[in-house]
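Thread title: Can someone regenerate the structure for this chain?

I was given the following input by a collaborator and told the matching structure tokens would be attached. They weren't. Posting the sequence so someone can regenerate them.
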Amino acid sequence: MKKPLTIPDEPQPRNVTRADLVMTEGYGLQVDGRMKTVFPTFEAAQKRARDLKAEFPMLQVKVYDAAEKKLLELSPTE
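Best answer:
Regenerated them for you:
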């Protein structure tokens, strides 16, 4: 016997990155020229960027600093 489908009262909010919204704080991850994910700290964004670059070396991955409005290149891994 199938269980009845329950629908929540309020839909869960989605974390959507929109091209028409400009980042004002935090650090964004830019992959092949497109903004993908926002992180609260530089260390978190840099860690994810290094993980992506290690898994997919052909990608161009940069970190965007919203406060300074600058793209930061990844330093070579030690």
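DSSP finds one helix and four strands in the chain.
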